């Protein structure tokens, strides 16, 4: 196979709809349940026991072969498929479907001996060694050739295998590392830049290379933005981040296209880490997968980790354009890679899984089926722990499998949201670079804060790219929209003019797509929509609290605001902007835009968001019970209301006439959701 690494890193597919999922897994109509399965770590007699236990737990899908390259191709060009033939046959005979992986996240030892320059190099210049996983230069031609070769062999052999219902390319692209500063990446970066800019003049202008004397006269003088004496050109950093996401995507696309030649009837995917992989632009990637699949692990020590889980699930649904998606991995209990790996408490497995399901997942899978006895993950939980079938975890796994069986009717139903939060990874990349006006600025922090306020109010949220059509939403929030390019500016302005409600938080509209400050400064492309300008940022001292005449208080940040049509909804009563506007509202066309110039938190932020929801006409559930998560999935003729009780107290709610699916009982009016428990009510649509 000939490779052209000088070609653009990825072929754009402009005709494809960024919010589409082309297919679901063929076969069964129920919710998919299962996990990663690594039988190669066990003797064959254990496989037979595993399969019997999978049947007991209601498992209908397992991901196989993710780390098997060394077994399948023991020497370059020599293949041995005995183990896969055997296990796929056994699984199929048992009626368990297979999500077959390409094993390209871990090249075998022979690969490193033959192609040592495929090792990635870190920004600091360290060449990473072998003996781990996920550590290869995405731009290495030898890696691309070897990866597509093993993929070709697998797809030829198993493309029509009756067990296989889905292809799983690689594993978690971008983790544990993404960017590579080695020779192959430098060469591919230059080619990517040539495609983006065409001429060096255009590149020099976009990168602002007149600053600090960086003008380039030859493409070959351009390097990856490795560590230097001090801050490196920030547009170069941003472009390198864009390039890295594209280079990894090109690896996925290359393998996917090989599979599609042999198995055009089957969906192909790769597992995302949607809110947790800062190096991948998943909006772009979502166009290239047939079904969105995601891995999610709780931040074990955070008491609000169920809110972050909900946010992650909402982003996946949004990446899937509202279509059903797969939870490809999560954990039954503790992971092994966080500082303190807090075990899940009884019932937490069901609550976590049900939140994903409630927010649109139609497949609930875990890492992994049987706990490893050796290797780096021997202390990670599994569906079948070391303690075996007498364990609490196994009991909960079996119980949850049975519960999913009772929820089959949920398959294919959809979540509807009237509120969207902008999610833009390019803003994330650029926002969090060095030498920003304050270390208190943190792209993700504001998004989590606004999402949490909405979660606390019981409002379901979609995420959207700032270029997306937003007309279906009553309210759009931009908690951290650092980059505002011309398209975003026009999109948001027209959204508000035609009646939309919009909220921007501070440090939004600060730069254009080249990380350059627009004429007139902040809020750049948001100036018309917000009806104000910000002549000076006024970051606060570490412990400083500023007060507002609304009774709220803020930390971290404030702005000197000049009103240009907007009105002040709240003014500062202390701090460097005392007397000036703190929160503003601008009427534009038929819509309204708010600006929040300080870090509101907790009850203050919730109260602000609540006020905006009221003005936008978005219903906030009146009788909301604290800690009770309520999400509705809409089917063709039924609605499924999911109740997940995260609190220690029983929650009494009122429901429409219907059936509680887990208990199978008719309900009409009062329903108690036990402390830590889950209920799902099916009622007629309407
Ligand atoms: C995921 C990875 C799995 C496993 C898991 C442990 O990121 O895809 O292979 O390592 O983490 O939590």
TrEMBL record:
Glycoside hydrolase family 42 N-terminal domain: residues covered: 36-405
GO cellular component entries: beta-galactosidase complex
GO biological process terms on file: galactose metabolic process
Binding site for substrate: 133, 171, 337
Top-rank EC class of the record's enzyme: hydrolase
Domain Beta-galactosidase trimerisation intervals: 417-618
Annotated catalysed reactions: Hydrolysis of terminal non-reducing beta-D-galactose residues in beta-D-galactosides
Active site: 172 (proton donor), 329 (nucleophile)
Ranges of residues in domain Beta-galactosidase C-terminal: 627-682
MF term (GO), any: beta-galactosidase activity
Keyword terms of this UniProt record: Glycosidase, Hydrolase
Ranges for region Disordered: 1-24
Domain of life: Bacteria
EC number in record: 3.2.1.23
InterPro entries according to UniProt: Beta_galactosidase_C, Beta_galactosidase_Trimer, Class_I_gatase-like, GH, Glyco_hydro_42, Glyco_hydro_42_N, Glyco_hydro_b
Homology family: Belongs to the glycosyl hydrolase 42 family.
Protein name stated in the entry: Beta-galactosidase
Species of provenance: Frigoribacterium faeni
